[in-house]
Hints:
Helix content: 25-40%
Low-confidence stretches: none
Strand order of the largest sheet: 2-1-3-4-5
Bound molecules: tetrahydrodeoxyuridine
Number of strands: 5
Order of helices and strands: HEEHEHEEH
Mean pLDDT: 96
Amino acid sequence: MVDRETAVRLIGKALEARERAYAPYSRFRVGAALLTEDGKIYTGCNIENAAYGPSNCAERTAFFKAVSEGERSFRAIAVAGAGEDGNGKFAAPCGICRQVMAEFCRPEEFDVVIANEAGEYYVRTLGELLPEGFGPENLK
Ligand code: THU
């Protein structure tokens, strides 16, 4: 599991990215910070759209930024999401984001750090969040 120092560092970056969320429709602002195996961090925020459907979650923004820069190996992601009255609540990644993670990450080795605005957090492996998922191995 990611150590506490790493989790706290990622949460700090996720909260910074959350400041850049474009969420005029839901007003639910989310930030993410994705750690590569070699120690780089890619951030993302949710980006909504007037047509709703094209909206993108913070986690996928971070993954797509990283993958488009050539990254393929990931260690952990922190996600911090809350509405205007956050109230210390936590928001775990949506199903589509879990599936995107499953494309690039091993279920038992990739940690998802789920944080609130106060910096409190808990950690789940991707395998815990998406048990018996369908992934690249199934097509081999
Ligand atoms: N959202 C994320 O960015 N990540 C999640 O894990 C859950 C939901 C975004 C999508 C939408 O812009 C807003 O939060 C409300 O669903």
